[in-house]
Amino acid sequence: MNSAALITMVLAQGIVICLTLYFFYKVLTTPPVQEPDSFSDNDEESIRKND
Amino acid sequence: MAAKVEAWGSRVGLILAMAGNAVGLGNFLRFPVQAVQNGGGAFIIPYLVCFLLMGIPLLLIEWSTGRFGGKFGNHSTPYILDTMAKGRVWKYIGVFGIFTNIAVAAYYCYIESWTMSYVYHSIVGTFDGMSQADVAGFFNSYVDISQSTTGIPYEAVLFYIICLLLNTWILSKGLGGIEKVAKIGMPLLILFGVILAVRGVTLGTSGASDIFPNANAWDGLNFLWTPQFDSLANPKVWLAAAGQIFFTLSVGMGTIHCYAAYLKEKDDVALNAVSAGFMNEFVEVVLGSLIVIPIAAGYLGLDWVIQNAGFGMAFQTMPYLFQQWGGVLAILAGVFWFGLLFFAGITSSLAMGTPWMGFMSDEFGWSKNKGAWSFGALALLMGLPTVIFYNQGVFDQYDYWAGTVSLVVFAFLETVLFSYIFGINRGWEEINKGADIKLPKFFKYVILIITPLLLGAVLVSSIPDWVNQIKNNDTNNKEWFADNYFAENFEGSGAVSGKVIDVKSDYIKFEFESERKKFDKVSNQVLVEKFNDTKEYKFDSSLNQEAIVKVGDVIKPGDAIAKGNFTNNTLYKFIGRMLLLSLFVFISIIVYVAYKKRVKEGRATL
Predict the structure, then answer these.
(1) What is the ipTM of this complex?
(2) The model's pTM
(3) Which one of A1, A20, A26 has the shortest CB-CB distance to B436?
(4) Which of B222, B275, B605 lies closest to A1 in CB terms?
(5) Which 3 state secondary structure label does DSSP give B255?
(6) To 10 degrees, what angle do helices B368-388 and B155-171 make?
(7) Domains of chain B (ranges plus CATH)?
(8) Is the Cβ–Cβ distance between B287 and B27 less than 8 Å?
(9) Per-residue pLDDT tens for B52-78?
């Protein structure tokens, strides 16, 4: 391969691989959201488009 | 009235299902071809810019609107859009989100069935000893349902029905079934892809033969990745990049909304959307670029690739190339290649069933089973014409109107709704609710200004082509029924004449001057050279069709070349368009009935 092609390929694929792994790692390691423990947390959203 | 609402079993399952929805055959076949045709390595620059400015914003819009609609018990676009704005019209615009899926599933399952069938043929050794022309001919006879490639009558129809039944059966298991398939299919797809990509990178010159002595896989990679920076100034390249991003992410279909509608109100959408989007990019940019082009260039040479790169390579060329690996390796390569295409296909087609099922469950209380089997029946009804009249152009009409135009129209409208009617401030708040990553505020303004402008540009630039399609400007045989057959264009411009070099009563062969591209290794440029090409016509004597030209005649496109009874493809294309229109009207009526039902129950909104 010529060097321009090799650099473009490695750069483009490297960026995509790194970001894919980074975001998937964050998905795997972010703890799940705790269930709301108060009524106020539960009923804050009840309005619809007529508001 | 709604049946028990489902939920995703795990976050990883949801992301794999979303990524599976996006990853399709286009990742392996469309992306490398687009790159080859639009500046090689430089294409990656507009491509990644469009991913940032259009792809990620659209993913964020669709994930967040889906979750927003789900909060009110709506799991498909008609009522998801209805919850976002006043006015009755939005639920009918949301019809696109069901219509597109049924229409696309109808023909997409046909392609999926080819991959199933080709796995079978790879295992039983059908392609053993076949020449490249034989493999291409095998595909042509496969899609001609009057012929049988294996002795199984109506083989193409049979595999199509098996494929549709499999999809329907999995869908009847609900989100759990889809999640299970994604958890098995996506890792296998990536594994198969990595194995083939390693082969693509390491093939080098070992595939050169007496017929193609200069074949070199690295030439393919050079051509694909050498940046031609002058192409960056060409607006067509940017439009091609925007189009590729658009189609690869499966945005504008309504499937993302539907999947996201099963999230809980405070579940993250920002990180999920970006993660699923990048997983699709990994499959496309990394795996998609390292398989078809280098392997084809490694056996057939770069010039062949430049002249023939296209969707057909998957079925008409790859089986021949795998035969060069010999024995068990050839079987394994066939299974890996068509297996990965099958998993790419089924994870997408399953997603297409969920909007219909979600709508019928929300509005009429239909069970998963009833929803799935009714979807299967609709897809079969819509799909059989594409199978039976594949060569007459019905398949292409579905792909164009449902698989291309509808997506762009719907994505543009939903972006306008999100940014300007629902309101960008509420929208931005919705995107960031429960977010596990902090999105730069830059995206808020991109969603407000850049994304609608880019989508608008893609939409407006495609309108002239809509007119050409409706006016049948791609053919010189516009009448449904005719007594004469007219010569089609010999090449793209329609300005070239052809000379008759062979004639029988039911056969004509023309020779004409054409152009083809060749890659000059010294200057690293694609050069155009002239050559004499040929074109053949075959006629059916049982319909009194007979050639009316003689050897040596010079024929212009549009000149009569045969007489007899002709039923032209324009009839079948018109039927295809009418079937699609009927489906859209049918779903609109169902949405109207659901609206009336909501009015009766006091649940309707303004």
Answers:
(1) 0.87
(2) 0.90
(3) A26
(4) B222
(5) helix
(6) 160
(7) 11-470+577-601 (1.10.4160), 481-567 (no CATH)
(8) yes
(9) 999 999 999 999 999 999 999 999 999
